[in-house]
């Protein structure tokens, strides 16, 4: 996170911020901490400043100061627009968070929306929509795109559905998706606060969305209920190697295949396939992930789900 200017008008504070960043550039994080601590004594209500102090203190190995800074940020901003809770969680011996804060994700992508596709597709080799599109049937019926972003998934399957609806937390991303003219309906939604209606979908897809959610029980249960009979659920995750899910240094979550199988079975999916693949690049390295296709939800009146294989 880049440091932001305060609204205090105190030139001396801004000078201290610049000097702290200069010390960071020279890897002198201890000195940067001291400078930024002094600056924060002058602007104690500045949330972004506390988060930045916590980041620098973490690099300096001053975990107690980092925890204190992140806790002050959360006290000032309980909605957690800057993701202080994730940074705080990474300092704990055992992770306690189970999702990225909704306000943080929305703010992040509102700022990122205009340059999202250029950065992700052209620079990072992002290929998740194409990966999912390649393993789906040719005719998809009515589709729900969870975390639709700028509409890349809709583009990847354009011409193969009768109707497509998109949900996303970020209004900025929804605006970009709207410009494509692909979706019949776009709505701002928190995927962990979805309510079940009478609407059912032949395909529900979540392309690179669950990296912001650790515990998937609630959303997978909702998906199972929202699918039409024999509907398909297709999604990706970053591949984890623990039994459940793990918060990574990138502030994204990784999920293990064992965890996913347990969730899908508990939700009643009769058949599913899980494949390991490369999702994109990050700092020049491949990001490994899992592509999941599930079908055949067993409901009370069903005897069994039908077999499903990758197309």
Task: Summarize the SSE layout with pairings.
Elements: H1 11-25, H2 29-42, H3 47-59, H4 63-76, H5 84-89, H6 102-112, H7 116-124, H8 128-134, E1 141-146, H9 152-156, E2 161-168, H10 171-180, E3 185-188, E4 201-206, H11 217-226, E5 227-239, E6 245-247, E7 253-255, H12 257-267, E8 269-282, E9 285-297
Parallel strand pairs: 1-2, 1-4, 2-3, 4-5, 5-7
Antiparallel strand pairs: 5-9, 6-7, 8-9
What can you tell me about this protein's structure?
The protein folds into two domains: 11-97, Tetratricopeptide repeat domain (Serine Threonine Protein Phosphatase 5, Tetratricopeptide repeat); 110-297, Rossmann fold, CATH 3.40.50. Helices cover 40% and strands 23% of the residues. The chain is built from twelve helices and nine strands. The chain has helices spanning 11-25, 29-42, 47-59, 63-76, 84-89, 102-112, 116-124, 128-134, 152-156, 171-180, 217-226, 257-267, and strands at residues 141-146, 161-168, 185-188, 201-206, 227-239, 245-247, 253-255, 269-282, 285-297. Strands 1, 2, 3, 4, 5, 6, 7, 8 and 9 form a nine-stranded mixed β-sheet that branches. The longest helix is centred in the first third of the chain and has 15 residues, at 11-25. The two termini are 41 Å apart.
């Amino acid at each position: 996170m880049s440091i932001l200017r305060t609204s205090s008008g105190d030139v001396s504070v801004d000078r201290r911020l610049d000097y702290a960043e200069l010390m960071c550039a020279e890897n002198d994080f201890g000195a940067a901490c001291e400078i930024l601590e002094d600056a924060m004594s002058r602007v104690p209500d500045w949330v972004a400043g506390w988060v930045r102090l916590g980041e620098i203190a973490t690099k300096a190995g001053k975990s107690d100061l980092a925890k204190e800074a992140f806790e002050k940020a959360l006290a000032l901003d309980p909605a957690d627009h800057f993701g202080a809770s994730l940074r705080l969680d990474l300092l704990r011996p055992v992770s306690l968070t189970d999702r990225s804060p909704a306000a943080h994700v929305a703010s992040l992508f509102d700022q990122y929306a205009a340059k999202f596709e250029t950065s992700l597709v052209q620079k990072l080799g992002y290929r998740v929509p194409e990966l999912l599109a390649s393993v789906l049937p040719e005719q998809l019926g009515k589709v729900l795109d969870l975390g639709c972003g700028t509409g890349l998934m809709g583009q990847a399957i354009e011409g193969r559905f009768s109707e497509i609806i998109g949900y996303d937390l970020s209004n900025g991303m929804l605006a970009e998706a709207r410009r494509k003219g692909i979706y019949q309906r776009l709505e701002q939604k928190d995927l962990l606060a979805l309510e079940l209606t009478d609407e059912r979908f032949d395909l529900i897809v979540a392309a690179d969305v669950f990296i912001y959610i650790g515990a998937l029980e609630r959303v997978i249960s909702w998906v199972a209920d929202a699918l039409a009979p024999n509907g398909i659920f297709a999604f990706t995750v970053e591949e984890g190697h623990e039994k459940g899910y793990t918060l990574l240094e990138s502030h994204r979550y990784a999920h293990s295949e064992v965890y996913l199988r347990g969730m899908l079975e508990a939700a009643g999916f009769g058949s599913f396939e899980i494949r390991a693949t490369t999702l994109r690049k990050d700092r020049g390295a491949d990001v490994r992930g899992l592509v999941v296709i599930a079908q055949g939800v067993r409901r009370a009146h069903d005897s069994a789900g039908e077999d499903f294989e990758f197309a």
